[in-house]
Amino acid sequence: FSFSWQTTFQDGGEEVEDGAVYNVTLKKVQIQQAANKGARWLGGEGDQLPPEHTVRQYETSKIRAIKAGTLEKLVENLLTAFGDADFSYISIFLATYRAFASPRAVLELLLDRFGNLETSNQGEVANLNSLESEMVLRAEIASVLRAWLDQCSEDFREPPDYMCLLKLLDYLKNNMPNSDMESRVQNLLKQFQNQEVEAVDGFCSTSSSDLVDGEELEISNPEEFSSFQDHVVAEQLTYMDVMLFRRVVPYHCLGSIWSQRDKKENKNLAPTVRATITQFNAVTKCVISTILGTRELKIQQRAKIIEKWIHIAHECRILKNFSSLRAIISALQSNSIYRLKTTWMCVSKDILLMYEELSEIFSDHDNYLTSRELLMKEATSKFANLDSSEKENQKKSQKRLQLQKNKGVMQGTVPYLGTFLTDLIMLDTALQDYVEGGLINFEKRRREFEVIAQIKLLQSSCNSYCLIPDQKFIQWFRRQRHLTEEESYKLSREAEAAADTNILSPKSQKSMVKRISTLFLGTDVFTPPKEQPLKSSPVGGSSGESTDSASVSSCEFNHSETEDVCVTPVSSPEDPLKKSSVGSDKGYDSDKGSIGSDKGSGSSKGSICDAGSGLDSGSMPCRDSGSGLGSAPRVLPVYNRQSEGSCIIRVSMDGLHDSIYKSILITNQDRIPDVTQRALLKHNLEPDAVEDYELVQVISEDKELVFPRDANVFYGMNSHVNFDFILRKRA
Q: Which segments constitute the Ras-GEF domain (predicted)?
């Protein structure tokens, strides 16, 4: 017999029930069978049919995917999703429900309302009185609970009482006594009880609190740093990144959760994400400290350290560690390092070309399309795919890669987390939590799950790494004293002033400065002020890892306003669409939309759009996540672009948290009071004080647009510059 299948999908519209709305898709499968025997098997007069004749049969099935519903309906749908052929629903719900419900609320609905067969209301689940229905219901609940324990066991970590685990254990003892699941829950409870509650900084392997008694932080000794081989440094940075990334709890990355981290009561929110950001910032600051920390270094010695870090970045690329790679590139592009023009002149041409190629990975062109495509291409590949336009670099890369392959050990992929944080923040900003009738918008959760699924895939790939910690390097790394932005800028000026500016003719100096600037900016040249540190400038766009506007905010907010501090690349005033920002010892800021800043000199706002992580329409999936269903895709509003009557702007507070900005969705119907109220709410300020503030769009360093009290923001704004706004107290 010869069979072939052809499947087509047809939009079946919507079905509305009490408390729920479903998308319906009709799945039509055409089965073709050739040959006379097949025709006879299907009931035809096979002997009378020509040899080329085929028999077609059609089978149509209905797929229902919940689009919006009450919490009760969404929990009930956990038990019926498989019957509706919405096979990804349970995974999507478990990965995103923390945005609209607590584990206790979901567990109580699942066990008390649907799992308690004596008290369940008839009609909620059909035929509950029959033994067969009871067995089916118990099996469905067991399937959901098993998936919950498999995928999100951290949801039950609630010290010291562990109320949800105890409630679950009680249900299993009554309904599934002596089952494997009961034993599993008992073991999980013991495991949680035996583990210390991990503090926020307990996740970070680079915390100075891990120092041995008596050890003190110190500025790096260049000779000690030079003693570590490049590939060893890269491997150890990757080891630390892998340990932290594997522990990231995916729901901590959701925009609705991560964007709340700046509130005082949320200082312990999302510790696993904060830990990765702290590590990112530690790498960035280590790079800056090793280059600037020793005043006595000669120009050539400082250039050699820069070359060493470029080689380490290249080794990180071979290991597919995009997190430390991005951190090193950010540090080298920070204001305090970028301005060392005489030092950069002493860096060899081949290494500058290597640096240029590595920097291109995080180009902001097309919403960081290069880094996104590369990350997905290598997510599950065994080894890095290295291409170089420079023959010598290509030869070295292939040689190093071959050494890795000869070891026979596959590699995982460590991403730059800021990309995902930005995407999730932008999704949270662009899509409503609730739809008409107060129903939870589950389509939004499907879209968020597309990003969460990528994080989970990469976490799984990290299991392929086989790295051994080198305690000598790790202790050295932890001992490093990080320079503040003011310190690094001051040391940078001293180093440059001490350089012999006459070693090159003015003409060759100009040529070299232009070449170095081109490496950073493409064609635009940006010269920082000479006499004083840069203040936070409104010109910058994205360069960090924030997530509320397009960058990642700093992760250490006890020291400065943000806690995800990171370094950001230099931005050019001439090109408002380039969203890089100048940063010194800055960090990954996730609410700002950029690798954030410590406040101080040299950093502009940035955006997690990606010091590498932005989010543009290119990164926003337009289909219904996981289901392939629903209405025609629509373009989501994005930062720096007006489309279909809406866009996303970034608003900071004048004089208060200047370095922190929030993403706000506006439409062509919004006027100043609406936008001002939303901005105040985002910044956790009193929304009733609308009349006390004026909204200002930053046009350039010395120009701004002040809006009248009742202006239409969408039509009144300047759409040819960055959509960066400031809320300022009226005089």
A: 229-498
Amino acid found at 608: I
Q: Which two tokens stand for residue 704?
A: 């701004």
N-term to C-term CA, the chain: 85
The pTM for the full model equals 0.69
- Give yes or no for a contact between 564 and 555, defined as CB atoms under 8 angstroms apart: yes
Amino acid at residue number 314: H
Token pair for 467: 């790295």
Parent domain of 360: 230-495
On whether the CB atoms of residues 626 and 92 are closer than 8 A, the answer is yes
633 domain-assigned: no
pLDDT of residue 196: 58
Nearest Cα to Cα of residue 344 among 320, 293, 310, 316? 310
User: Per-residue b/e over 576-588, b at no fewer than 16 CB within 10 Å?
Assistant: bebbbbbbbbbbb
Place of tokens 């232009």: 514
Q: What is the pLDDT of residues 585-614, one digit of tens each?
A: 344 544 433 333 333 333 333 333 333 333
Asked if residue 570 belongs to a domain, the reply is no
pLDDT in tens, 11-43: 878 999 999 999 998 887 776 665 555 554 445
**Maximum Cα–Cα distance across the chain:** 98
| Distance (Å, whole) CA 316 – CA 310 | 10
Q: Report pLDDT for 201.
A: 42
Tens digit of each residue's pLDDT (9 = 90 or more) over 290-340: 999 888 899 999 999 999 999 999 999 999 999 999 999 999 999 999 999
Least confident range of 150-159, 258-267, 355-364, 536-545: 536-545
**Does residue 238 share a domain with residue 179?**
no
In this structure, are 78 and 175 located in the same domain? yes
Is 95 in contact with 442 (CB distance < 8 Å)? no
Would you list the DSSP string of 105-121?
A: HHHHIIIIISS-TTTPP
Whole-angstrom Cα distance, residue 23 to residue 266?
36
d(CA 33, CA 460): 41
What's the token pair of residue 46?
Answer: 């096979």
In one-letter notation, the amino acid at residue 253 is C
Could you tell me which residues come within 8 angstroms of residue 140 by beta carbon, excluding any fewer than 6 positions away?
A: 78, 79, 80, 82
189 with 261, same domain: the answer is: no
Residue whose token pair is 């940075």: 237
